[in-house]
Amino acid sequence: MANLNKVYLMGRLTRDPELRYTPKGTAVADLGMAINRYRSGGEGGERTEETTFVDVTMWGRQAELASQYLGKGREVFIEGRLQLDSWEDKSSGQKRSKLKVVGEGMQFIGGPGGQSQGEGGSAGFQQSGGGESSQGMSAPSNSPEPSSPPSDFQEEEDDIPF
Fold first, then answer.
1. How far apart are alpha carbons 12 and 47 in whole angstroms?
2. Closest by alpha carbon to 109, among 4, 11, 3?
3. Of 60, 63, 68, 35, whose CA–CA distance to 50 is shortest?
């Protein structure tokens, strides 16, 4: 049986990217995204909005570019994979887990400050394994980037219930 773990997300950042470095110097950026879904519902046919919040982690050069060019409210397209993080809560001793997205490619949408540039006017870069082209600048693909945290990476444990 074949396996596939691929996620495509388009939404707005809920906060500025948080950039940090591993002890070996690898860049890591944490992004928060809000993805809206609109649907007509119920008997009245009124339009409702449903928002999903997703945490995304970018690695290497992409993390640095996200930190440099993205900010709260900016639209972005992320291509990545799901990853389940598990840990034990220090205060209660309970096991916790969190599903997040590890970003493997991104494309900036709209202009700085979250203004959309209209149809076909996206700016930014895309880095994925294929030879796809995008408008804006392209990130160099000659250096391998880890798809998982390096073995020396010590992530701070949060007691966030989601």
1. 20
2. 11
3. 35
Instruction: Give the C-alpha separation, 57 to 80, whole Å.
Output: 9
Does 131 or 89 have the greater pLDDT score? 89
C-alpha 62/C-alpha 67 separation (Å) is 9
Percent of the chain with pLDDT over 70: 67
- Please check whether residue 71 is in contact with residue 86, taking contact to mean a CB–CB distance below 8 angstroms: no
Q: What is the DSSP letter of 151?
A: T
Catalogue the E-assigned strands of the chain: 7-13, 18-21, 27-41, 46-59, 75-88, 95-109
Contact in structure between 47 and 40 (CB atoms under 8 Å)? yes
Superfamily of the domain at 7-114? Nucleic acid-binding proteins (2.40.50.140)
- Between residues 63 and 137, the one the model is more confident about: 63
Average pLDDT over residues 16-30: 95
CA distance 35 to 12: 7
